[in-house]
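Methods — Computational structure assignment.
A single polypeptide chain was analysed. Its primary sequence is given first, followed by the predicted tertiary structure written as structure tokens.
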Amino acid sequence: MAKVTKLPPSLMNISTFRSGGKGGQHQNKTESGVRVRHFPSGIVVVCRDERSQYLNKKRALAILQERLKKRAEKPKPRITIKVGEAQKARRRETKKRVATKKQMRRKPAREED
């Protein structure tokens, strides 16, 4: 887990719910699932992996932090590569070969007298 820096509580809503699933009576009776909604970005993180609400909240905040950091990163610009003349010539040759194959498959034209 990444180190969690403090996010202002006014920018998010943390709610709990019964997580359900495997775990029997303990999971069915306690509200250990945590949902964190970050208002400015609209990101919603749900965590119900652990049995305790505290650990789920801690993990959900860490996931939210990671997603915000990933969203803030700018993608690397693509580097355009110029296609070489030899590559262009090879491509034209293969296109010519394919075109002649297709012409051979066609039905011959009917000659009318």
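Note: The mean pLDDT is 88.
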